[in-house]
Design goal:
By secondary structure, the protein is α+β, with helices and mostly antiparallel strands. Helix content is about 30%, strand content about 30%. The chain folds into two domains: about 180 residues, FAD/NAD(P)-binding domain (3-Layer(bba) Sandwich), CATH 3.50.50.60; about 150 residues, D-Amino Acid Oxidase, subunit A, domain 2 (D-Amino Acid Oxidase, Chain A, domain 2, 2-Layer Sandwich), CATH 3.30.9. Bound molecules: flavin-adenine dinucleotide.
């Protein structure tokens, strides 16, 4: 089967590898370099702490594959526990954490509620005197996202795929193929994994999708204390160890961004907020070494769009800020769908018509089940 994969981010590179490894005749296209989209701007936080059955299955597979690939090329999965919590007074998120943990455990996740004093004993720098409910998973780690995409694109090439970077392509639906400049190239199947550009690429081919790109932000610091991967659900920010320092972020701008015209630098308010947050949470007066923004993609129900959307045309996007950590499983599922398997039925992109009105919800937000 001749397959075009549009987008050499973590998801497209994984799909290209799995397709080529299973006998597909694959070409992976990227308008820039492999990993030059959102993947190259991601924080590299990976964990399996998801409550819904399908999400837990996907995350379990993703973490297992990260571990399998770790040590190959320049890619390393650095095992680091992930801790998340709600503060006192934030009863809604406290209830949500207490409700999610048993559901995660029922899905075989190695997750437990943890006493704030025990957290403080393990990580003395982490302030926990205001924590109402906290949980921890040890199935988590930190990575360099671009190294993952580079590894998987390299593995795809070794399995026989062609990788064409610096090549912006469009989709042609009748017959199935891609357009490069004015030329059409025929394929049996086209997988659009173009990140924030997915909606535009498909719209140009007359295929509407319910997807909105939105801006999030991150920064790094010169140094920092010993901390786990941490998400302060009440404060709405995360941090992770990063070399000798920390990487911290969120800074969600809950409005639709133009994927070709958005501010790449972080906002001053974001940098100030995170510096305050670090001073409060880990007692660290941070020297900021870098601060940037990037794009995530939202869907109406916060679940991905993954699967066939027209005959021979497949989409893989809409990760709501969790695309990198699930990419080894999502790319694999996309490849399976292209090869005639079922993919992930819950993520079927045809559940939307593409013209839905919806608000963008911050990706890591913790909410009670409705
Ligand atoms: C600051 C920040 C921090 C984040 N932190 C995390 C995190 O810790 N964990 C996590 O799970 N997720 C995180 N994310 C989200 C994560 O980056 C994305 O979900 C993930 O990288 C998406 O991967 P992708 O392969 O779908 O898309 P992308 O990495 O965006 O790849 C899409 C590719 O398509 C290419 N492309 C677009 N249009 C075309 C075209 N017409 N022709 C050819 N190529 C095209 C682009 O150049 C790009 O390389 C973060 C995002 C940001 C911005």
């Amino acid at each position: 089967m001749k397959v075009a994969v549009i987008g050499g981010g973590a998801v497209g590179a994984t799909a290209a590898y799995d397709l080529a490894d299973r006998g597909g005749d694959v070409t992976l296209f990227d308008r820039g370099d492999v990993g030059s989209g959102s993947t190259g701007r991601a924080a590299g936080i990976c964990y399996d702490a998801f409550a819904a059955d399908v999400d837990a299955r996907v995350a379990d597979r993703a973490v297992a594959r990260f571990r399998e690939f770790s040590g190959q090329g320049g890619f390393r999965f650095e095992e680091t526990p992930y801790v998340w919590f709600a503060r006192e007074g934030d009863e809604r998120r406290e209830r949500a954490i207490r409700e999610h943990v048993p559901r995660m455990q029922a899905n075989d996740r190695d997750v437990e509620l943890v006493n704030p004093a025990d957290l403080a004993a393990e990580w003395p720098a982490l302030r926990t005197d205001d924590v109402a409910a906290a949980a921890v998973t040890r199935d988590a780690g930190c990575v360099r996202p671009a190294a993952y995409a580079e590894l998987l694109a390299g593995k795809a090439e070794s399995a026989g795929a062609r990788v064409e970077t610096g090549t912006e392509v469009g989709v042609s639906t009748d017959p199935t193929g891609v357009t490069v400049g004015g030329d059409r190239r025929g394929f049996d199947a086209v997988l659009v994994a173009a990140g924030a550009h997915t909606k535009r690429v498909l719209a140009d081919a007359g295929v509407p999708v319910a997807l909105k790109p939105y801006r999030v932000q991150a920064l790094t610091t010169a140094d920092g204390p010993d901390v786990p991967l941490t998400y302060d659900a009440t404060g709405g920010f995360y941090l992770r160890p990063y070399g000798d320092g920390l990487l911290a972020g969120d800074g969600t701008e809950a409005v639709e961004s133009d994927p070709d015209d958005w501010k790449r630098d972080a906002d001053d308010w974001f940098v100030a907020d995170v510096r305050d947050g670090l001073a409060y949470r880990v007692g660290h007066d941070a020297e900021v070494t870098d601060a940037w923004a990037g794009l995530c993609t939202a869907t109406p129900d916060r679940d991905p769009l993954l699967g066939e959307i027209r005959d021979g045309l497949y989409v893989a996007a809409g990760w709501q800020g969790h695309g990198f950590m699930r990419s080894p499983a999502l790319g694999e599922a996309a490849a399976e769908a292209v090869l005639g398997g079922e993919g992930v039925p819950a993520f079927d992109p045809t559940r939307f018509t593409g013209d839905e009105e919806f608000d963008i919800v911050e990706g890591m937000a913790i909410e009670e089940s409705s």
